[in-house]
Amino acid sequence: MSTVTLRSFEETLEKYDPALGLEVHVELNTESKMFCGCPTEFGAEPNTQVCPTCLGLPGAMPVVNRKAVESAIRIGLALNCQIAEWCRFARKNYFYPDMPKNFQTSQYDEPIAFDGWMDVEVGGETYRVEIERAHMEEDTGKSLHVGGATGRIHGADHSLVDYNRAGIPLIEIVTRPIVGAGAKAPEVAKAYVAQLRQLIIALGVSDARMDQGSIRADVNLSLAPTGADRLGTRTETKNVNSLRSVERAVRYEMQRHAAILDAGGTILQETRHWHEDTGITTSGREKSDAEDYRYFPEPDLVPVAPTREWVEELRATLPENPTQKRARLQAEWGFTDLEMRDTVGAGALALVEETIAAGATPQAARKWWLSELARRANDAGVEVAEVGVTPAQVAEVQRLVDAGTINDKLARQVFDGLIAGEGTPEEIVASRGLAVVSDDGALGAAVDKAIEANPDVAQKIRDGKVAAAGALIGSVMKEMRGQADAGRVRELILEKLS
Which segments constitute the Asn/Gln amidotransferase domain (predicted)? Predict the structure, then answer.
């Protein structure tokens, strides 16, 4: 893989304005596929969840999944979209091995939802992301390229195709160009996908597991000279499957585009692959325009015409608006604006909410997710939600702290055990011997040892300088590997030296 010269992010912003476009594919959690009755279970044996319809065999006739249409309408309403009174499917024609029919049944010029918006907050500023459309389609199969070092088709010895995913219902949500974000463009992209994912989960229409591909983003990026009245040529980075990578992909493409333009080159309109391990993109294929797909109306499916009564019934099932929910939660939790902004920015809002629901206080929940667990996630290069600890486990760790069984320092070792899969917090405390020692016999012996080793400090305490006890407490804690009851240690020191 050749090395690509990049402009620094700061130099890029001195000369160019970025424009973003995001296409987010949401795999719906229906029990059957979009146009047939095949199951949609994730992880099944390859090519066991297929039938003549989703394989595109001659004579097989598709039937629209009503639950998928319902989910599409609810997503559209939640995104403040208009819902079409009449729409239809089209055939998007192209050949690729994971497309068994050699066309994808999608929607083209008549989507079910259109003209919506979502507000996202980044760094105290609100950005309105305009939604161009949310349309229904079916997913493709999955190719596995065997051999080679990258897992890509280039360099592979051979390829395998699993068609289980072919035909699973998808909703593709397409934004209009997002301009004016400047230096915050990467953060805006991440914040939008994060908030959209939270909304999808709240709607209950998908598990939105980015690690399993049930929600994935295509990131479109272009640069134009500062002050220009038209957009530059865009590239589309396909199938970015983590929030962190969305931000990194935008930043990388901005710097790559700037280097090409500064060198007098031109940007090729193309799709690109994101490489999680190296944090770069590589060329995929030249991007096709709509006319290249030879769209035409799907002759085997009748139009979809949701009644206004049905639409309003579905509107009544929508969850709380994300912006209003954040304001409500901030008031309930007593967070400052900065605390709430940091919680949202870390992608931890839902985690904190679930931890509080499991019994922790708001400040305790925020403390663990935004400090200890956020640090671990950053070290591992994953989102904080993927660090390997659940909200219920965090709440249980805090219960052990509140009960005096462990302290904050020992709790960090409990998190080590949780991430390593060693059992429940209580089991880890027992197996690792982490419980706080409150026994006066053991503590008294450690206190005597600390006094003997630090006679000058002991004399200060005898002379009335009680604050000096902190040094002896520290010695005792070190001697007992952080497991001493610090409050009782202090009491014993003062009793012995009074």
Answer: 350-497
- pLDDT confidence of 289, banded at 50, 70, 90? low
> How far apart are alpha carbons 111 and 137 in whole angstroms?
10
Q: Which of 177, 199, 185 is nearest to 26 (CA)?
A: 199
- Residues 204-220, mean pLDDT to the nearest whole number: 91
d(CA 283, CA 289): 17
The CA angle 217-290-197, to the nearest 5 degrees, is 20
Question: Domain spans of the chain?
Answer: 9-315, 322-432, 440-497
Digit-coded pLDDT (tens) for 51-70: 999 999 999 999 999 999 99
| Tens digits of residue pLDDT in 304-326 | 999 999 999 999 999 988 888 88
Please, which residues bridge with residue 133 across strands? 114, 174
85: which residues sit within 8 A by CB, 6+ positions away? 305, 306, 308
Given a cut of 60, whether residue 440 has pLDDT beyond it is no
CB 444 within 8 A of CB 492: yes
d(C-alpha 364, C-alpha 366), whole Å: 5
Radius of gyration (C-alpha) of the chain in whole angstroms: 28
Choose the CATH number for 440-497 among 1.10.1670, 1.10.10, 1.10.490, 3.30.470: 1.10.10
Q: What are phi and psi of 421, to 5 degrees?
A: 75, 35
CA distance 164 to 50: 6
